[in-house]
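Methods — Computational structure assignment.
A single polypeptide chain was analysed. Its primary sequence is given first, followed by the predicted tertiary structure written as structure tokens.
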Amino acid sequence: MMNRVLQNQKMKGCCTIFLNQRLESACRLAPLFGRRHHYASTSSAWQNSNDVHQSQWKNRGQQPRKQTIDKISSSKKKSKEATPKQRQHQQHVTYTKPKSQQFQAPFSVFISCLPGLEPLLLKEVEYLHSHWSSNNDHTASKLSKGQPHILRGGVKLTVPSLHHLYILHLYVGTASHIYLRLNDDNVDGLPPLFRARGFPELQRKVKDLIISQRWDEWLSGHNGGKEKSLVNVQVHVTTSKSKLMHTKAIEERVKQTIGELIPNIASDGNESDEATTKTVRLMTRIDRDVVQLSLDTSLTPLHRRGYRLKPHRAPLREDLAYALLMSGGLMPCWDLRSQFSINSDESFVADLSLPASRGTNRVVFDPFCGSGTIAIEGASLQLGFPPGRFHPPPMEGTSFCNPALWEEMKSKAMMSVSRAKQDDDLVCVAAGDIDPKALDAAKANAKRAGVDDCIDFIKGSFVSHPLLKQQSKDGKKTNVLDDATQQSLLVVANPPYGKRLSPDETKSTIYRKLANALLSSSSSRSIDCAIVGKDLRIMREAGMPLDVAFSTKHGGLNVVAMAGSLPKPKDSS
């Protein structure tokens, strides 16, 4: 019995010591966390009354809690200092119903391109923009707020009229799509962007936008005529960091809202003649709950020129070939005097910042022509063929579509080309490939593009090509290209990557052989080079002193383009 009592007393003593230790630690941590209950540091204080307990809390706990509240309030004030992008989205919290106004010029335009080609696209747009802003004071006043500038994925600008929008469609070569903004901030004549965090709110605000801009007047499907036809509206949706994330549901809500307000919209269940039904594509972009609607001005992407109906294996995109030529130094120089009523003085083109591509006695050579895309784009660029000469008129299915104006602009552009083609020595483009099927496809595509008489196709390896061979000792000419052996050379190449073609064709030796052939030929002429490939390390190890021009995506692969001038050998005089 006595042993049991002693054991109980020991257990009570241990429990008291344990509780004292826990209370001391709790007492130290209570001011830091702002606890409402204060714990005593000794067992005697723990047994005090509630009044003493509350007084101790007032003495010790109030001051630390006040400090923590001040810290929290100060951190909230700092968090309210938002970034410019966050402030831009915060201004759409208050929604005001847009005023009823006709959708007309000036237009807010966004030109999209492959990622990495934005600087080259900006050069093209600035070149065209300088034509219509430097010779018309009224046009320059309209464009004062909408100068071309780079955004992610393209270039944004303001065009003063529908005629200027058609010029972009006809002459821009590195673009993929041209979007006409239906609502935008800081643009005169357009409703602002709006915020939508639910489907009812989205439908209500899209309805307000349709009514304010009178979509039923221009979304008529008559292509500039008087008779209305059915319009098939395609809605493409992209969302990012928004409450509305279901793209298919957003597409259905937008289509439903348009169909309720515009009578000539063809629904999915209606059976209509495809020949009479016009298709219009709307882009709905939701970023951080802010909605922007745009009209795709061309259903066919702009990089599809229309001449490459017989492609070979792994063809290069036309806009990427155009960008390679620009990286190599072959800049566009369009004669737009026929498109505008301006004075025909030579200083108009000479004052522009971009160098002219015509009359430079420059030979373009593609040693791996494949479908002939680089050679065709190079010949078209030197001759002055506009890239969009085979495209249908823009903005089909709307009242902004003017086929007569589009055909007139193309005919005026081709008149200057016909004068340039009369000189046989003006343009010289060479292309070669070891595959006869590739050469047949390239010749067919070049004939369809109208530049077959300006390109010399030769079957064989680039090592034995006349442009890279040393001139014979007796000075006899063995090929028509021997006349161009003393001219400057621009080599633009797209060697196989080893993904879509067999890996055996893409060993690093192909780059070394090309580098050796070009460096040995650079002793007698100046050579510029632009090469696109997948492996940057192999391209650098080839020995050509080139710099990275741009990096982009092609065929689902990350590719990089390198460009520069090759130095002459040291032993050459």
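Note: The radius of gyration is 35 Å.
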